[in-house]
Amino acid sequence: MLEICEVQVFGCIVGMYGINCENNCSLYCAYGDCDRTTGTCLDGCKSGYIGRFCNKTCSVGKYGSQCSESCGHCSNNSTCYHVDGSCKAGCEAGYKASACKTPCDDGEYGQNCQYMCTGNCINGEACDKASGHCRSCVEGYQGFKYDRDIRQSPTSSDTKKNDVDDLKINKMILENEKTHARQIRQHIVLIC
Fold it and tell me: What is the per-residue DSSP string for 144-167?
């Protein structure tokens, strides 16, 4: 004669661990599960987190699964979000997309590639993706971005406005270069 015995198996439910299942697994364990005794995450960590218990965020400049990705070209040398690499302050000039790793397409320039080149670069070359400047321009144009038709009367109000705009752009670029150089010097001092 066959007897059937009742067997009971006790253990923690998914997401809990400890002697009496009193502890929660880390919210950042992949799939929300951990070892029922130690609390160690069984399947690794969610994106942006590391450690046995997935309780540490990626170091500055890193993001993603196992913090294996490097941040892109975030504006003002800011750091990216440790989970998905997005740049909260936007991209530095010449780059676009949320992680700022995508260079501007030919014909685009500036922060987040928000501007279009004039199309007056010599031989149809693309303008500089950061500044919009051309190495050389087609005949009849001048100015920082070669957007001023020099065949116009030199006294026209458009020409004077373009001269002022060129000066403002050149001043902005010089200020950005000074700021960037200062940041590099500060970074070198911090490293030393």
Answer: TTS-EETTS-TT-HHHHHHHHHHH
